[in-house]
Amino acid sequence: MAALCICMSLSAQSDRDLFDAYMREDMSVWKAYIDDVQRDNVQGTKDLKYEYGYCGYIVAEAKKEGKESLLPEAKRYVHQFKKHIEEQREVLPKGYYEMYLSAVYVYELRLKESIHPIKAMSLAKEATRLAPEDPIVLSYYGTCLFYAPKPFGSKQEALIYFKRAEANFHASEWDYCWIREATLMYIRQCQEKLNL
To answer: Cα dihedral angle (155, 100, 164, 185), rounded to 10 degrees?
Structure first.
């Protein structure tokens, strides 16, 4: 029993540390965490949430002018993330496989490795059908709507999904969830863009 409490405590501490790093915009902490998990071969479904976020970060960084040298690293992390999604497909919560695969297609599109924007949106929408109350799934679909060009995207519709996600983020399990914080940021951005 004591070992279980220690493991749970370490997990919570790790989530808190990763959340704090996110709030400080220090993604080197996330990179180290993902690399440690990969090296120690202890990948779990919760770790995919951090891989998903780190891939989004490193792909965005690699696309910035003057940072093209990060492209190989971004591609490596996206390939690793895709592999981990497939390895854990059977144990992922409902909608997560579709959501994460959609994210991979978006990252690959940005890296010019594949062209599946309609498939990415379709998978994101399917994830919301499979997990209509899951705040991470709802927030992800909101993000897709936020960034997609018209007629696929809509800030108005994105705001609806972000607000639905936010309403489901109130359980204590989400206290140190970076996606909750990102959702709140997107709600503010949507409201500003829509003059609400």
So the answer is: -60
Of 34, 67, 28, 63, the C-alpha closest to 51 is 34
pLDDT tens track for 9-61:
334 348 899 999 999 999 999 999 999 888 887 777 788 999 999 999 999 99
Cβ(54)–Cβ(100) below 8 Å: no
- Cβ neighbours around 18 below 10 Å, total: 22
Structure tokens at 59: 């792909």
- What pTM does this model have? 0.89
Cβ atoms 62, 103 nearer than 8 A: no
Cα–Cα distance, 107 to 54 (Å, whole number): 11
How far apart are alpha carbons 145 and 161 in whole angstroms?
Answer: 9
